[in-house]
Fold this protein.
Amino acid sequence: MTSIPAAAPGAAGKPRWLPALPVLVRSMLPAALAALVALVASVWSAHGAPLGVDEALHRWVLEHRPRWAVASAVAVTVTGSGVPAYLLAMLAGAMPVRTHRLRGALAGALALVSVQLPRMALASWLARPRPPAGEWAWSADGYAMPSGHTTTSAAVAVLLTAGVHRAVRGRARRPLLVIPALWAAAVGVSRVYLGMHWPTDVLAGWLLTALWAGLLGTVLILLRRRKAGAVPANEGEGT
């Protein structure tokens, strides 16, 4: 009698948690959407005014800003948007591609653009004012919610994590999977610490990115399933 192996996780080199990924993505979408809608509705009903938690954390920040901490926050925050962010997104797109790296880099940049469009549309619709400019420790422009640096850096972190997961093996893989998330979190916190955003602006940026990542993941999963379903059919035709 032939015994059937339980799962062959190493046969295709796939992690054991990979089959649970579609379930995780599907659960992320409604949760992120519900939280973002609730937050936006609260801010909209307040006509863009800061919520209680916004004012409390903002006042605490203004009372705890030594020069060295402000300098550190500025050094972090400038990496979360513009040229540095797009270069990182292009790197993330090119990492898992062995050939046509330029095409992969372009895909990474376009993926980052795809999250900017809904962010700018939502920001223009809400038109939420930033905290008073006299309390900023760095320069800023545009509306407050969702935070552009927060959304951008979080999206780049998602792309980098996906790129590292597909391209890196060995001991360096685990820390490299964590670093993008820590960096994106630091960028988001820096926006509040420098006084240019209310805390809920940053939270909205994270929620919007989670929603974007869930939608992007769903599309990729559907494309993979379609491709995987086509392979047996093609093989069957040739037998």
